[in-house]
Backbone:
């Protein structure tokens, strides 16, 4: 039968070694989570900026400041000017 001190020492060393592995796994998971959150924040900010830009363009079209955009085939394919502005 091995001495208790030897068994206890082995248990402590094994536990400490496993704690290092667990710590590394937790750090990796935290870093991946932070990366996902950063990506979501960038995406949300991009959406906000595009929405703001779109609102300004629509306002300018409504004021008649961008007549060339009113002639855009892309816009015409979706809505005529009055229909486009009433959808807002």
Residues:
């Amino acid at each position: 039968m091995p001495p208790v001190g030897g068994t206890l020492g082995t248990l402590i060393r094994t536990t400490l070694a496993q704690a290092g592995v667990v710590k590394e796994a937790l750090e990796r998971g935290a870093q991946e989570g932070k990366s996902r959150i950063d990506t979501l924040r960038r995406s949300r900010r991009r959406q906000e900026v595009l929405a703001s830009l779109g609102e300004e363009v629509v306002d300018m079209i409504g004021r008649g400041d961008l007549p060339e955009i009113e002639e855009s085939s892309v816009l015409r394919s979706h809505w005529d000017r009055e229909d486009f502005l009433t959808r807002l």
Q: What stands out?
A: The mean pLDDT is 80.
